[in-house]
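Exam review. A common question shows you a sequence with its structure tokens and asks you to describe the fold in words. Practice with the pair below. Do the first one on your own.
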Amino acid sequence: MSDVVMETNFSDVKLLRRGKVRDVYEVDDHLLIVATDRVSAFDVVLPNGIPDKGKVLTQISIYWFNQMKDIIDNHIVATNVKDYPKILHKYEDILEGRSMFVKKASPMPVECIVRGYLSGSGWKEYKDKGMVCGIKLPKGLVESSRLDEPIFTPSTKAEEGHDINISFDEMKKIVGDELADRMKDVSLKVYKKGREIAEEKGIIIADTKMEFGIYENKLILIDELLTPDSSRFWSIKDYQPCKGQDSFDKQIVRDYLLTLDWNQTYPGPMLPDDIVAKTAARYREILEILTR
């Protein structure tokens, strides 16, 4: 296994922020986004990471951004370090494969979630209220049910803790009617196209979260797209409604942590080698399936 990149430190490049996974730098009027191998669970970044996780997330995002160009533009300027500004060339060993040089867009203050199947917080809310984010759904649905039509369920962006699901009307109050309508329309188109492509490869995209920004007065896709960290991927051949599904993501990590006597606050526990190896293999597997 390759070395784990938990943190980047480029002394001559301005660090804007460290997220749970990504380190973001400012380079002139552009951004450099570096996906590290950090892994978070229950909103806690764990002390050890998953080898090459950042590379997997970056390569999957690049694949999907390219697939969606006919629907909407995205923030990518370059993905090959030799095409980056010269100041970054000396960091090629770290950056190659796990970074994107991107437009500096103004991020929209809501996240756009599309659900094609009933899972996670959507399933929980449906059980309680028969609806998800104010959208009434048919009676009799079960966990992991495929929805007749995908639904758009935006959320707020929380700096800390969990994002909060909101209704489409609430989203309109935040970003305005015109932008809300455009973001909803694009989100559904991106999800449907992604779902069709993935299904041909034996994968269900149960739901996904995407982010938008404004660049030169135009709405574009930013951040990551249809990755295991922003989406639920299930195997078509293993899919069985009425229960939770095995996901191509860090579910192995979550399941392990739930066996521990840990209160889900900092500091998180170290992951054992076998859990790290299994999770790394799972990430690599979905990269190979989706991009082959």
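Now try the second one, then compare your answer with the model answer below.
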Amino acid sequence: MSDFFADIPKLTYAPDAEGLAFRHYNPDEMVMGKRMEDQLRFACAYWHSFAWPGGDPFGGQTFDRPWFGDTMADARLKADVAFEMFDLLGVPFFCFHDVDIRPEGESFAESRRNFEEIVDIFAAKMETSKTRLLWGTANLFSNRRFMSGAATNPDPDVFAWSAATVKLCMDATHRLGGENYVLWGGREGYETLLNTDLSRELDQMGRFLSMVVDYKHKIGFPGTILIEPKPQEPTKHQYDYDVATVYGNLKRFGLENEVKVNIEQGHAILAGHSFEHEIALANALGVFGSIDMNRNDYQSGWDTDQFPNNVPEVALAYYEILKGGGFGTGGTNFDAKLRRQSLDPEDLVAAHAGAMDVCARGLKAAARMLEDDALEAPRRARYSGWEDPQAQAMLTSDLETIAARVEAEGLDPQPRSGRQEILENVVNRYV
């Protein structure tokens, strides 16, 4: 045990409490037939909460954590602190990259041994903690060896190193009972076409992903393979830009029934979409898996990974999730980090608690909108003309037949209001 959170009690649902508590997140409250905890499936991100030093593109470390260092003793202390926070918050899940949990060794083998030792510690801690593993993943972007990508790298040795790393992380995820395995490309893209064989790199990416799926079946991993779409930053172009791009690649590689998407709010915005758009599209394409819940600073043009605090935005995201049937193996991972000036242990706990409350409020608003048919009834009315048999017949007809009907019936369709402002007012009544 550590004393990092020594003065912070375990959080409970206490709407009128003065100090740290949940004002809206009540794990046992029933929402659309499920406990709130089971609808939201919260997860803490190991990397931002325990490995991030508080830097930004223009300044270095501001956090002073007792486990910051490159020794296994530091890694063990970090694991102690992490599970203490998981227990304080009562979160059902956590997520990690390999480099988050272990120091880099002098060789791949040494890094593997360090990693496996911490995985052993996780397994032991999970025997007495309610917190399970939502997903594991490999960091194939931070080390300088990945500066030109991992699966798409022009150096086959980097491809090999990446494959070995993913195998290691998949094995660990399987052993710990993880419900998903995530692939985040990070640098799977290019800075300039002047030195890039785009076709070759796409083929390499498809082969790599196919090997991941094959290995999943070989080891009997029952979880879901997820890809996290990411536009630009850090590379000019990324091959997994958004949900539509990922789906197009999955179709090309014949993997659309094997792989789903983990959608991040911040990435959706950087791609020029809304969070709810990406979720709705993933559901429409049958590839929705999980979400990383955070937000960007809309006055800044990069991925700031802040904790969510906008209930209307969150409500629209959960509306699409609930409308699609809710999470399967996925959940709500807080891929969010403190601001550089938020230095204290209490800041870390308060950030998660506040975000969990925001999500709880959004979830309840979304559920009420669905239960009241507040948006679906006007949506059905807008498309009701397509229920007519003659309209349905057009979808299996041809241009000539349809054109003949237009002239024969003298059709003169007039525009009808989309009622956007009225619907926005409806949403505002719920949030």
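Model answer, second protein: DSSP finds 16 helices and twelve strands in the chain. The domain at 30-371 is CATH 3.20.20.150 (TIM Barrel). Full marks require stating both points clearly.
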